[in-house]
Design goal:
The protein is built from seven helices and nine strands; from the N terminus they run E-H-H-E-H-E-H-H-E-E-H-E-E-E-E-H. It has 298 residues and is an alpha+beta fold. It has one domain.
């Protein structure tokens, strides 16, 4: 597939309107409202088949299947077990010495005038009316090799996956009308390599269809990621932030756990977060990264 088939990134943005409702600071870090650079300029096409109702039913089944896999065997002893935990073992009581990275203050743009929030009733396509570069998580303090948020082509995104899957991924991006892809990567002070991709489609229907038919994360990671190897559901996933509309699929590499992977399905936009480190990517900074990126998309 030629990258010329992929649509370009969004265009210029006009002046902003009244600010949106501020996001609530979460345990992992807060978000501050500021004025936007402007709205996206595309027109929302109708979602593809299957219907939105059918899609939500299918995704709910997959989501609850994942919940059962993660939570089975853990719930019965939670009330008893929490009494013996150390302070840093409980998400709500964790301290800043628990291995988290220090991120810059996060700023979420106010919505342009007349544009609804992505998960409001007035926005059935669940469109994010902001540039993907403004929705991208920044690198933490002390990181090296920060690429900043940069636009990439479909073939570059496909290189995230194993060679035999790249053609299907690139063709799927084209078939489902990808609008824009943005990537950011860095190496944290502790040596962890991080890459974040945000992929925008015309609407939630297109994004979900690409996710389900091409990437297929549910009980396992689905389409194989290059150099990652086998993965399994991260049973220690802890999310102190209640996501409004973003669905999360979180995985850890089996064995030594050198890599961790998360898929974020957020309306018209998909996020893919990959962290790897020789000897094993740490769980807490990975979960922190996932939570903060989720907040920016919500």
């Amino acid at each position: 597939m030629s990258d010329q088939n992929l649509p370009p990134a969004g265009g210029p943005y006009p002046a902003p309107g009244p600010p949106a409702q501020p996001a609530v600071p979460a345990q992992w870090g807060g978000i501050t409202q500021v004025e936007p650079a402007g709205p996206a300029t595309w027109v929302q096409p109708p979602p593809p088949k299957p219907s939105l109702k059918d899609r939500r039913v299918l995704r709910a089944v997959a989501r609850w299947t994942l919940v059962v896999l993660v939570c089975g065997g853990l719930g019965a002893g939670s009330a008893y077990g929490i009494t013996s935990m150390e302070r840093t073992d409980v998400p709500g009581l964790a301290t800043r010495q628990d291995g988290r990275w220090v991120y810059p203050e996060l700023k979420l743009l106010a919505l342009p005038e007349g544009k609804p929030r992505p998960f409001g009733k007035a926005n059935p396509g669940e469109i994010h009316h902001a540039a993907l570069t403004d929705l991208m998580l920044p690198a933490p303090e002390g990181a090296k090799g920060d690429t900043e948020a940069e636009a990439v082509k479909g073939a570059e995104f496909a290189e995230l996956y194993e060679k035999e899957a790249r053609g299907d991924v690139a063709n799927g991006l084209r078939d489902y009308g990808v609008r824009e892809i943005v990537r950011r990567s860095w190496t944290a002070a502790d040596g962890t390599d991080s890459t974040v991709h945000l992929v925008r489609f015309p609407s939630v229907g297109y994004a979900d269809s690409f996710m389900d038919s091409v990437l297929s994360p549910s009980g396992d990671v689905g389409t194989g990621l290059d150099g990652i190897g086998s993965t399994a559901v991260d049973e220690k996933w802890e999310n102190p932030h209640t996501s409004e509309g973003t669905q999360l699929y979180v995985y850890a590499a089996e064995g030594k756990g050198d890599a961790r992977v998360a898929y974020l399905a957020s309306g018209d936009t998909l996020g893919v977060i990959v962290q790897s480190k020789k000897g094993g990517a740490e769980r807490i900074p990975f979960h922190q990264t996932v939570v903060l990126q989720t907040q920016l998309l919500d």
